Structure formats: structure tokens, C-alpha cells
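A reminder from the course coordinator: this example appears on the midterm review sheet, so study it carefully.

Given structure:
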């Protein structure tokens, strides 16, 4: 009897490729779920604005933006890991790849368990609107590690203003309000009638020829008197 073929040995590289595929599949599943969650969060933000709860609305919008950002970054990270796994020098980077896969797995678990609409609602109901700050609520929800960039924070503010405009409570942008305050006031136009211009002295009416003749006569008289001496 011939020997049965030996079972191929599973390498660390094979294991990393398998884990990568698992994470990508989970990420795609969560992406489909996230589409519904995002739509719900936007609707809850609108309802909060109608109840004059802008900070609560901003929490929903920040949570939505954090989820979108995390999904995009995780896709990018998995793409980078896939490239690394395919290199011939996998042994040299095995530790980094394993660490990256572990981080990706942790992020997916947090997205699935911590950032749900129900959990946000439950926490917001225990906080007064006056004391509610979007960033602080994010910390309480355990989203500190999923912070937004300045550009993403600006996008949240822009969306909040857009929803406020839809609800009929549009507000001035801070920059526009500041410009209006800093604009210098021009002096008012005087209401009194403009006074008459001061009168200038009249021009001499004596003809120029008479003046010149008088000067010539005086000069001749002085010359005649000088010749007598």
C-alpha cells in the first residue's frame, strides 16, 4: 500500500491570510448594519433639534461620523495588511501583521458592542441638556480611542447647521457673526444744510494799463530830479 499524502503544514502566513479574510467579511457585515444605524441616528438628531436639544443632536451626529470614520480606516488598514502578508519577507514582519490583525479585531468588537443607538439613548436620558457636551458624552460611551479629526468635527458642525436649517432654526455661522461685530461703523451723514462758502475778496477793478502808466511817471520824475544834481 502506498503512503497517504501528508497533510500540508499550515504556516503563520496562511493563518494571517485566513484571519484577514475573516475580518474583512465581518467588516462588510457591519457596514450593511451601519447603513441602517446611520439613518436612524440622523433621524434622532432631527427629532432632538425639534425639541430644542442641539447638544443631544450633536452626540448622534458625532457618533455617526465616528462609525463612518472607523469603518473607512479599518478598510484601509486591512488593505495595508493584505499587501504586507503577500510579501516574500513575511517572516520579518510577522509580528507587526499579527499586531495589526489584533487591533482590527478589537475595533470591530467595539463597533459592534459599544456604539449602538440604544446605548447612546440610554446614556443621554440620564444627562441634562444644559450639562451635555458632545465630546464628554463620547468619552462616557467609550469612544475616546475613536476621536474625530478637526476636519471631521467641522463636518459634524456643518451637518448640524444643515439640520437646523431644515428644522427652521438656522443660526449664523460664528465667522459671519464675528465679521458683523468687527465691521467698523461709518460716520453718519450730517443732516444740517451745508453752510455757504466764505466770500473771497473782490478782484481789483482798476485797469492794468493805468497802474503801469502811473509807475512809469514816478520813475521818470525820480530820474529827472537826479540829473539836476
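Designed residues:
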Amino acid at each position: 500500500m502506498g503512503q497517504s499524502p501528508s497533510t500540508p503544514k499550515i504556516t503563520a502566513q496562511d493563518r494571517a491570510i485566513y484571519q484577514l479574510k475573516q475580518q474583512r467579511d465581518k467588516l462588510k457585515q457591519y457596514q450593511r448594519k451601519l447603513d441602517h444605524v446611520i439613518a436612524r441616528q440622523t433621524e434622532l438628531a432631527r427629532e432632538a433639534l425639534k425639541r430644542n436639544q442641539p447638544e443631544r443632536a450633536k452626540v448622534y451626529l458625532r457618533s455617526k461620523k465616528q462609525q463612518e470614520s472607523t469603518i473607512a480606516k479599518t478598510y484601509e488598514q486591512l488593505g495595508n495588511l493584505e499587501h504586507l502578508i503577500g510579501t516574500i519577507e513575511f517572516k520579518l514582519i510577522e509580528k507587526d501583521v499579527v499586531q495589526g490583525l489584533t487591533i482590527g479585531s478589537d475595533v470591530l468588537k467595539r463597533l459592534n458592542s459599544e456604539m449602538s443607538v440604544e446605548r447612546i439613548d440610554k446614556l443621554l436620558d440620564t444627562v441634562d441638556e444644559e450639562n451635555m457636551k458632545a465630546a464628554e458624552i463620547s468619552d462616557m460611551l467609550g469612544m475616546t480611542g475613536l476621536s474625530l479629526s478637526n476636519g471631521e468635527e467641522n463636518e459634524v458642525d456643518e451637518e448640524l447647521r444643515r439640520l437646523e436649517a431644515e428644522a427652521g432654526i438656522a443660526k449664523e455661522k460664528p465667522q459671519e457673526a464675528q465679521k458683523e461685530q468687527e465691521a467698523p461703523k461709518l460716520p453718519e451723514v450730517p443732516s444740517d444744510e451745508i453752510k455757504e462758502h466764505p466770500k473771497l475778496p473782490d478782484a481789483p477793478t482798476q485797469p492794468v494799463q493805468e497802474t503801469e502808466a502811473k509807475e512809469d511817471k514816478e520813475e521818470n520824475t525820480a530820474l529827472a530830479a537826479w540829473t539836476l544834481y
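DSSP finds eight helices and no strands in the chain. Residues 12-146 form one domain.
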